[in-house]
UniProtKB/TrEMBL annotation:
Residues 164-275 form the Palmitoyltransferase DHHC domain. It is found in: Membrane. Belongs to the DHHC palmitoyltransferase family. It catalyses: L-cysteinyl-[protein] + hexadecanoyl-CoA = S-hexadecanoyl-L-cysteinyl-[protein] + CoA. GO terms for molecular function: protein-cysteine S-palmitoyltransferase activity. It is a multi-pass membrane protein. One of its GO terms (biological process) is protein targeting to membrane. The chain crosses the membrane at residues 21-42, 48-68, 75-100, 239-263. One of its GO terms (cellular component) is Golgi apparatus. PROSITE patterns: DHHC. It holds the Pfam family DHHC. This is S-acyltransferase.
Length: 300
């Protein structure tokens, strides 16, 4: 990790004490457990429904659980972390697979899923600790970019080439070369230096969750066909169904998101530029929302 990335990494955590970080981790872990247990109530309350019919109900229950969890955290004054929420979800899926589903999985799928989960954790660490392409807007950089001042470097005019595409992120207050967007799930900007890692990580999530769905489907099918559905631990079985529904919901929106980024790569488009050029009012609203959010975080 470069010195500049290390400095930003420390800056983001300079205002947080170890106890605040610990409480944030506990809040994120609690939110994951609460949301997954809420989704696990769907097969318990609606056992006669098919898995396809349970899917939209599980989506609504998951969103309601997230909203309730955020209201509760706001009430007790504890902030959670989106990257930790992603991390604990990976660990939960991996744990359910190892302790419940693994015995009904072939050796090839077992090795594949374990490798995919391990690579996801490694990729998550790399994108959180890496440098997205932060630039120091000093005189040497301005001369290199051919700009007269800092504002012109961030918002290039028609005379300047758009190769560097330097933008300032309103969430991180950092200036990023090749800025595409700020990813709330990973808690970092996506820029020139980590865009490939972001695409690989997004693809890895789709592949790993699809593999988990395949393994959990085989487990549920085995329970139905062997007639041991009633003898299985209802808590573990409902947890397998709920995590499978969660994985399917994740794959649905992640595939759409992945297709969008592949389209942007093919036509040399940046997400931030596309939003501002096609929806200027929405871009302005998003900018104001980010400013308000940043002020709220700094004051909390």
């Amino acid at each position: 990790m470069s010195r500049l990335a290390t400095g930003l990494h420390r800056l983001r955590r300079s205002s947080s004490s170890p106890w605040e970080v610990l409480w944030s981790a506990l809040a994120s872990c609690g939110l994951v457990i609460f949301s997954q247990l809420a989704v696990a109530m769907v097969p318990r309350l609606f056992p006669s429904l098919s898995l396809l019919a349970m899917l939209p109900i599980a989506g609504l229950v998951f969103l309601a659980a997230i909203v309730l969890g955020r209201l509760w955290r706001r009430f007790i004054g504890v902030a959670a972390s989106a990257p930790l929420f992603v991390l604990f979800n990976i660990l939960l899926l991996w744990g359910v697979y190892v302790f419940v589903i693994r015995r009904d999985t072939s050796s090839l799928l077992d090795m594949l899923l374990n490798a995919e989960c391990a690579l996801l954790l490694w990729g998550l660490y790399r994108i959180l600790s890496g440098d997205p392409g932060i630039v120091a807007c000093d005189s040497s950089y301005l001369e290199e970019a051919g700009c007269k001042d800092f504002v012109e470097a961030i918002y290039p005019s028609e005379k300047l080439p758009m190769l560097s595409r330097v933008r300032q992120c309103n969430w991180c207050k950092a200036t990023i070369r090749g800025y595409d967007h700020h990813c709330p799930a990973f808690g970092t900007c996506i820029g020139q230096k980590n865009h490939r890692l972001f695409m690989a990580l997004l693809t890895g999530f789709v592949v790993a969750e699809s593999t988990y769905t395949m393994c959990s489907t085989k487990y549920i099918t085995r329970c139905i066909n062997s007639g041991t559905l009633r003898s299985e631990n209802p808590v573990s079985l409902n947890l397998v169904i709920s995590t499978m529904l969660f994985s399917i919901l994740q794959v649905v929106w992640q595939v759409v998101f992945l297709m969008w980024h592949i389209y942007c790569i093919c036509f040399n488009i940046k997400t931030d530029e596309w939003v501002i050029s096609n929806f200027p009012c929405f871009g302005l609203f998003l900018h104001q929302l980010q400013v308000v959010f940043s002020l709220a975080v700094s004051c909390s």
